[in-house]
Amino acid sequence: MKLVALAMALAALALTGSATAANRHVVETAVDGNVEADFSYDYNAQSYRFTNPHLTIRRGGAVLLDEDLKPVTSYSEVDPARYFNHQKSVAVRNLDVDPEPEIVLHLWWGGAHCCWYTQVYRFDQMANDYVLTRHIFGNADYRARDLDHDGRPEFVSGDDRFAYQFTDFADSSWPVQVWRYRAGRFDDVTRSFPTLARRDARRQWHWALARRYRTDNVGVLAAWTADECLLRHCDSAFRQLEVLRREHHLGLGWDKTAKAFLRHLHKFLRRTGYMSK
């Protein structure tokens, strides 16, 4: 009996030790001038889950924000989006024209392939507090890049409205989309960067050509057409799609016929603003 009890105790100790080893408490710190942000969370390597996300913001040494982070919905999570890239998911940097830096959290919803989002905390001098602005990018990842070399980054992503719109998720594609943060809001500024749209259009077109003898090319062609519309080439893009239709190189996706897909695409691009400007 003593041997059995000893074996059980050793097994319990081993389990406790492995569970402890599997849990990792992480604190990410970012600093700019007198502003410091600490983003902390626990990661369990066995369950691949993040828990206890917490943010602390100090300004001039004083703690102005100290709170647990809440998920966007009841079924989502608050995961550090850059953890598996071995990068910090928190940054302190100036996103707009005022001299005060913002705190930026790069986060992940926790789903199979959705969703990427960012939380930006802006200092409100009148309230001596930080105000949250959240932007959900959805299925398309994003990266911060200073496209116009003004010292402040844009957020380069893809238009998530194209997910599932014309076909299943795996065969969907996203035209490039660029967002700029200014004074507590995100604005779509994609049309200000035609070189980026032109580059993405070439990428989408080459991908579509590789699929022209298959039935799953409509998602890519929809994204290509949107890029072309951003460049004010909508009419020529639809003429090219008509050529593909006559050559029987248009897939069907959710639509029953190629003509139905073209009507669907035209209405969708007009409704989402690609053809209205």
Could you explain the architecture of this structure?
With 277 residues, the chain is α+β, with helices and mostly antiparallel strands. Helix content is 28%, strand content 32%. The chain has a domain at 26-138: Lipocalin (Beta Barrel), CATH 2.40.128. It contains five helices and 13 strands. The strands form three sheets. Strands 5, 6, 7, 8 and 9 form a five-stranded antiparallel sheet that branches. A four-stranded antiparallel sheet has the order 1-2-3-4. 31% of the residues are buried. The model is unreliable at 1-19 (pLDDT under 50).
What CATH architecture label of the domain at 26-138 applies? Beta Barrel
**Count of alpha and pi helical runs:** 5
**Describe the biggest sheet?**
5 strands, antiparallel
Could you tell me the radius of gyration in angstroms?
A: 24 Å
Helix proportion range: 25-40%
Q: How many runs of DSSP E, i.e. beta strands?
A: 13
Order of helices and strands: HEEEEEEEEEEEEEHHHH
Instruction: Based on Cα principal axes, name the global outline.
Output: elongated
List key phrases describing it.
277 residues, alpha+beta, Lipocalin, five-stranded antiparallel β-sheet, four-stranded antiparallel β-sheet, 5 helices, 13 strands, disordered N terminus
